[in-house]
Amino acid sequence: MNLNSKNIILIFFIILFSLIFVFVWNKNYNNDLYKNEYYGIIQEIKSNGKFENSKVLKLKNSTDFNYDFWIYSPIKNDLKINDSISNEKNSFEYKVFRKHNSNGKFEYYKTLNSKP
How many angstroms separate the CA atoms of 94 and 113, rounded? Predict the structure, then answer.
């Protein structure tokens, strides 16, 4: 292959586009890896069994308990069935919302941690 100016410029652009593609793909892949959004209405509550006062939850429209998320609740009535729970990305805090009988809407109740 004769290395004239056209070939050198073409090779440079191919390498540049390849590097840009790899960096963009790697960034998107890593962002999806750390996405921890967790939210829904609690259907069942079960003790984790590994740590005292830690619970695992089964949400509505879910088939099984999610053992990836442990919630530490030292008080018995911190979590109830039909409470709504949400977790933001990369956070160890879970916000619990409880439905009130007077207006039927979910209102903020408490923040719980996944670690004691």
Answer: 6
Q: Do 25 and 49 sit in the same domain of this protein?
A: no
Domains: count for the chain: 2
Q: 51-60 pLDDT, tens per residue?
A: 777 788 888 8
Q: What is the residue type of 44? A: E
The model's pTM is 0.59
Q: Render pLDDT for 64-86 as a digit per residue (tens, 0 to 9).
A: 877 666 788 878 788 888 888 88
The counts of H helices and E strands in the chain are: 1, 6
For residues 45 and 95, state if they share a domain.
Answer: yes
| Residue 85 tokens, joined | 């729970």
- How far apart are alpha carbons 4 and 2 in whole angstroms? 6
Q: What range does the domain containing 10 cover?
A: 1-33
Amino acid making up residue 53:
N
Taking the C-alpha atoms of residue 71 and residue 64, their distance in angstroms, rounded to an integer, is 16
